[in-house]
Specification:
This protein is α+β, with helices and mostly antiparallel strands and 527 residues long. It has 14 helices and 31 strands. The strands form seven sheets. The chain has an eight-stranded antiparallel β-sheet. The protein has a seven-stranded mixed β-sheet with strand order 2-3-1-4-5-11-6, with helices on both faces. It starts with a helix and ends with a strand. It binds guanosine-5'-diphosphate. The site of guanosine-5'-diphosphate has 17 residues, from helix 2.
Length: 527
């Protein structure tokens, strides 16, 4: 085996690249910060906080930009723990939720689904879960805020199955809950983590025989211990056994309980997670599968971030490395344009200051300075050409009709729209009817604000957006598409590749159209 090949095997084996998926307020910022603290990346924890502090700022552009500037520095966070190199990909939530959030998930090898014990599965969790489930990546679930009164663990497990269609295997189990929470039992390692002292801040970890061990009774009291025994007996009999294969395929989710803010259950979560989560795996390309240990470097762009620094107006293309070793200054082929380019200025976003990376491996994300040559989904490769499968186009949920205030600016307008579509800021649709109209679709409201601002700032074009009442978009495929069937509470448009897309005002209109055209497919992502 060559030296490079050996090095690649070693580096790939230790990498874990994942994203945290959750609904706002479940505790993602808190969890991220705590995980980074475990890895000793304290400087970063500050960054996460800074971002948080800014997040609720007003939506005027400079604020957005500042906010994005900060969020971008923490777009990828890296730390070392127990011999692993961990990459956490940030998935913007709140008002900066966008298609970027979905695309980022394509760069992750696994996901941690964070759920508030009192709220259970929420809207944004469902959407993000579905994107992960489609890829079949392993999903780990962390039920947070156990220090508060919440729903019973069994109730939450049932909800995971009913709403998301995934069964859960509890890796640990709470001893009491809310004010009574006094510890967590680790079913895999047979140990208890007990929270002692008035504020429960004294965390003690102790090995036990099993959950019936009298040591737990001594520490937690008879009532809670009996309850624990009853619940775990039930799980032993009726619950799913741990099955690594099912976990790897994303069919079974290992379930953890804890409280991020109090550090309860975090260490066992992190350790179990790192052990079970997959290392970077083989990716599909047009030319065939690409193993991470292939010596030739390859990767793809999953996100383009503009205007991070108002003084430079530069763009950064985020590249997920899929195979080989990256070294600064190396030449690679930009497959779509067929040119060699030199990767001289790659950045990693470890802190407010952009650190320059000298080398990186599969699973790592690097930021490439982008003078306007990259599009979402572009592949870069060394040696022979490697073209990674196109990133899916996700169905937008907010729509607006766009018009240009000054007709003379039409050329600049077109240029701006093309550019912003390529970057994935917006999706553009054109009407199929008699009136020529352009409709923009986005996943998050902020994308419209970004579009308006950038059209003005970069292309000198004032646009007017008129919000439309559509809520759903489906790509329609089939022989018998009848445009006259899309008149009530719906509209038939075309995307930039001339695919038919139906926009619907409500679920009822969508169901009706589906019923009327049983032979037509209604797809959530572009064909
Ligand atoms: P995000 O919106 O998902 O990033 O959530 P944050 O991390 O900002 O947390 C939302 C709120 O929940 C904040 O007020 C946190 O302090 C709080 N929080 C986070 N984790 C816990 C926890 O384990 N217990 C309790 N009681 N509150 C928590």
């Amino acid at each position: 085996m060559s030296k490079l090949s050996e090095q690649l095997q070693e580096e790939v084996a230790k990498r874990r690249t994942f994203a945290i998926i959750s609904h706002p307020d479940a505790g993602k910022t808190t969890l991220t910060e705590k995980l980074l603290l475990f890895g000793g990346a304290i400087r970063l924890a500050g960054t996460v906080k800074a971002r948080k502090a800014n997040r609720h700022a007003t939506s005027d552009w400079m604020e957005i930009e500042k906010q994005r500037g900060i969020s971008v520095t923490s777009s990828v966070m890296q730390f070392d723990y127990n011999g692993h190199r961990v990459n956490i990909l940030d998935t913007p939530g709140h008002q900066d939720f966008s298609e970027d959030t979905y695309r980022t998930l394509t760069a992750a090898d696994s996901a941690v689904m964070l759920i508030d014990v009192a709220k259970g599965v929420e809207a944004q969790t469902i959407k993000l879960f579905q994107v992960c489930a489609k890829r079949g990546i392993p999903i780990f679930t962390f039920i947070n805020k156990l220090d508060r009164e919440g729903r019973s663990p069994f109730d939450l497990m049932e909800e995971l199955e009913q709403v998301l269609g995934i069964r859960a295997v509890p890796m640990n189990w709470p001893i009491g809950m809310g004010r009574d929470l006094c510890g967590i039992y680790d079913r895999m390692k047979n140990q208890v983590e007990l929270f002692q002292g008035d504020d429960h801040s004294n965390i003690q970890v102790q090995k036990v025989e099993d959950y019936q061990d009298p040591v737990i009774r001594d520490m937690a009291g008879e009532f809670l211990h009996n309850q624990l025994c009853e619940e775990l007996e039930l799980l032993d009999v009726a619950g799913d056994p741990f099955d690594y294969e099912k976990v790897s395929r994303g069919e079974l989710t290992p379930l953890f309980f804890g409280s991020a803010i109090n550090n309860f259950g975090l260490q066992t979560f992190l350790e179990n997670f790192l052990q079970l989560a997959p290392k970077p795996s083989t990716r599909q390309a047009t030319e065939g599968p690409v193993a991470p240990t292939d010596e030739k470097f390859s990767g793809y762009v999953f996100k383009i971030q503009a205007n991070m620094n108002p003084a430079h107006r530069d763009r950064i293309a985020f590249l997920r490395i899929c195979s080989g070793k990256f070294t600064r200054g190396m030449s690679v082929k930009h497959v779509r344009v067929g040119k060699e380019i030199k990767l001289a200025q790659p950045q990693q976003f470890l802190a407010q200051d952009r650190d320059i990376v000298e080398e990186a491996y599969p699973g790592d994300i690097i930021g490439l300075f982008d003078p306007g040559i990259f599009r979402i989904g572009d592949s870069l490769s060394q040696g022979s050409e490697v073209t990674f499968d196109e990133l899916p186009t996700f169905s937008p949920e907010i729509f607006a009709r766009v018009t240009v205030k000054n007709a003379l600016k039409h050329k600049q307008y077109q240029k701006g729209v093309d550019q912003l579509t390529e970057e994935g800021t917006i999706q553009v649709f054109t009407s199929t009817g008699v009136f020529d109209e352009t409709i923009l679709g986005v996943v998050g409201q902020l994308q419209f604000e970004v579009f308006e601002y950038r059209m003005k700032a970069e292309y000198g074009v004032d646009v007017q957006l008129q919000r439309l009442t559509f809520q759903f978009a489906r790509w329609v495929v089939g022989k018998d598409i009848d445009p006259t069937k899309f008149r009530i509470n719906s509209q038939l448009v075309k995307d930039k590749k001339d695919n038919f897309v139906a926009l619907f005002e409500n679920e009822y209109a969508m169901r009706t159209a589906m019923d009327k055209m049983p032979d037509v497919q209604f797809l959530e992502t572009a064909p």
